[in-house]
Amino acid sequence: MHNITSSLIGVIQSYGLLSVFVLMTAESALIPIPSEVTMAFAGFLASRGVFNIWEAVLIGALGNLIGSLLAYYLGYRKGELWIRYAINKWGKWFLVSEHDFDKAKKWFEKYGQGVSFGSRMLPIVRTYISLPAGIARMRIDLFSVLTFLGSFIWSGFLAYLGFKLGQNWEAIGPYFRKFQIAIVVVIIFAVAFYIYKHIKRGTFKKSSN
Length: 209
Fold this sequence. Notes:
Layout: H1 2-28, H2 35-47, H3 53-90, H4 98-111, H5 115-118, H6 125-128, H7 130-135, H8 140-165, H9 173-201, H10 203-208
Helix pairs in contact: 1-2, 1-3, 2-3, 2-8, 3-8
């Protein structure tokens, strides 16, 4: 992790916002590059006046969107059987595992299309959630909007912490772990509320009859 962090820092220092876009695109295109490093360091550089923090956040979110659309298109065009075949054959070269794909698929099936938004703030799932969304042929306009909004919030959160923490930006770890736990709790409560409302209206009773 230390070597990865050092490499990412060197790339961002050399190529600026272009590297932020490329790295965030790669993360959402099934290459597990930690956005926590990319956006936190971008926020730190923004605090030093290297570039504007909102430009970095926007570029990061757009990168995530483009990468997610590439993964979505792969799932849409190739289907689940080919995806599993590809992961088993080439996944080790990209640190992609069938277990991680299954985890993202289970989240999508359990929580529905809204997980395209919430998953952008969760580890592992955010990298792979576009595949099951594409396989399920989720409406691409809805997918794009939810993905961009979730990515913008996540990129902004990381960049803000990097901006505020300054040279201590690597201390971001405890912050984003707590934030991710909070997101999981919010999603669970949202799903529970959705089910409760439908039970109260008698939707499930009617459908069962």
